[in-house]
Amino acid sequence: MTQERPRIVYCTYTNRIIDFVRDGAGETDIQAIARLKGEYGTELTTLPAHEAQARYENSFKTPVQEITAEAFDDALNVLPPEDWRRGRGAESFKCMERIAGAVTSIYVAVANRYFTFNDHIRTPHDQCCERVMAFIAAHPVPTTTAPEAST
Q1: pLDDT digits (tens, 9 = 90+) for 115-142
Q2: Nearest to 108 by CA among 91, 125, 122
Q3: Which of 63, 69, 115, 133 is the most exposed, having the fewest neighbouring CB atoms within 10 Å of its CB?
């Protein structure tokens, strides 16, 4: 059985890509781990590059959380929004600056409530709305409090 190349040394404790297995120089997975464990510890494994990248990015994805209208507006105005959409009774946009790989912050406004989560930059508007609607179904009462109006 042939292993997929390139192979990556990956730290399962920190969810970080450490180095390539230097198979062009005849290095095996075991030798690569031995070479790096003194500096990075024993929580090392080897993975195909695409799997290491997916694990790394997944470690930055977050569940939906409710935010204030002000936080939504701040995010909308800090950088030009990416993929700004309206539809399904909601508005969504993504921060153009990535957190890690293809993961970015996604913002959704629906029914005068505001939300954010981190996920893949190409997550479609409809899927963003579905995730937020599932959150709303589980949390029908807003989880943030609006500032009280001054009198």
Answers
A1: 999 999 999 999 999 999 999 999 988 8
A2: 91
A3: 63
For 40-53, what is each residue's pLDDT tens digit? Answer: 999 999 999 999 99
Burial 56-73 (b: 16+ CB within 10 A, else e): bbeebeeebebbeeeebe
Amino acid at 56: Y
Q: What DSSP designation does 72 have?
A: H
Give the three-class secondary structure for 83.
strand
Quickly count: other Cβ atoms within 10 Å of residue 134's Cβ: 11
Give the β-pairing of 7-11 and 16-20.
antiparallel
> And the tokens for 40?
């990075």
Q: Which of 129, 96, 84, 82 lies closest to 110, judged by CA?
A: 129
